[in-house]
Amino acid sequence: MPMPLSRPVYHPAGHDEALRAVLQDLRAGRWVSTRNLLTETPDWGLWTQRTQILAAAVAGSDVVRAWRAEEPHSASAAVLHTRVLVERALRAHRAGHRQTNDLWRDAVGACSTAAALSPEDPVPWICLLSLAQLDEGQRWDEHRVAPPEPMLFPGPWQLLAEADKRDPGNREAYHRMLQFVYARRSRGPLTEAYNFVQWASASAPAGSPLHLLPLYVRVERYRRESGNERALDLHWISEDATRGALRALELWFDHTRPGTASLLDLNHLAHALWGAHQFHDGLRVFRALDPFFTTVPWTYRTHSPGDADAAAEVFVQARARCLAASRGPG
Fold first, then answer.
1. Which residues have CB under 8 Å from 46's CB, separation 6+?
2. Degrees, nearest 5: CA angle 119-123-128
3. 295: which DSSP letter?
């Protein structure tokens, strides 16, 4: 019988051991290992994931600026610099900072520079998609393009198409589009979000992380309803919730290598399977996660959303329930 699972820990790099080592260097102001890692990154999906994590970790420092000063023609440095500027603009927007518009403008300019240096890279277009959520009134023409299907909404569809052309089904690109929908409709029903994720996942191939998108919208609805008892009953043990969790397991988890998967995706799937009382399948995902976890979505099951310790406790309880079910009675 496998040993009991360990106490979960959070690390943005998760199972990506190479990225964990590089993050330590970059936070200490050393960028050479970052350059080497990005040079060796084999595909756009992993490139997107690594650049996002690296930029979030050093958005408050000038280490990437130092790299660009040393290697001004480096496409990798330009992309990571763009990532940092976008992260700063998004953080300023969330904080209601008066410099948000200036940071936004700088980030848009960096996107253009990075796209020119590396025209095959989806990340500059993903960054523009990220910034689209700041245009809350959809004043920019590129943020209110007609949708590809009548049931969808006007939005930055051309930006998504550019990212999709370079890396079809890119996980972050579609999540950024979903965040745009949330910003467009910050209150009320999530009809537009549901329509979008159903459209996105319907034609996705087996193994695509787009099959996880409906689970995210379900969690967002639960969060907006403050996790009341009615939401609990309807969300997690309904036929629709169970079908969605099992579909994501079959079409994504069973076709992917968990070691390279997004930690957020694995946590959302484990959470959905546990909530739907699919404990045996849930345990498979918990084992793939070991020893890592993310606070979301578990934090929404606590009385203190944002408390990492409380989220970890819910995670441990859910995992223990799945483990107990796998052992059977007695």
1. 260
2. 100
3. S
For residues 125 and 131, what is the distance between their CA atoms, to the nearest angstrom? 10
Q: What count of residues does the chain have?
A: 330
Give domain limits for the chain. Answer: 1-123, 211-330
Read off the tokens for 311. Answer: 């989220």
Separation between Cα atoms, residue 192 and residue 149, nearest integer Å: 12
Main-chain dihedrals φ then ψ at residue 319, nearest 5 degrees: -65, -40
Name the nearest CA neighbour of 26 among 1, 59, 48. Answer: 59
Per-residue pLDDT of the chain (330 residues; tens, 9 = 90+): 454 678 899 999 999 999 999 999 999 999 999 999 999 999 999 999 999 999 999 999 999 999 999 999 999 999 999 999 999 999 999 999 999 999 999 999 999 999 999 999 999 999 999 999 999 889 999 999 999 999 999 999 999 999 999 999 999 999 999 999 999 988 888 999 999 999 999 999 999 999 999 999 999 988 888 755 455 556 788 888 999 999 999 999 999 998 889 999 999 999 999 999 999 999 999 999 999 999 999 999 898 888 999 999 999 999 999 999 988 764
116-141 burial code (b ≥16 CB/10 A, e <16): ebbeebbbbbbbbbbbbbbbeebeee
Match 């095959």 to its residue by tokens.
120
Residue 247: CB partners within 8 Å, gap ≥ 6?
211
Q: Quick one: how far is CA 314 from the chain centroid?
A: 21
Contacts of residue 198, Cβ cutoff 8 Å, sequence gap at least 6:
214
With b meaning 16 or more CB within 10 Å and e meaning fewer, what string describes 201-215? beebeeebbbbbbbb
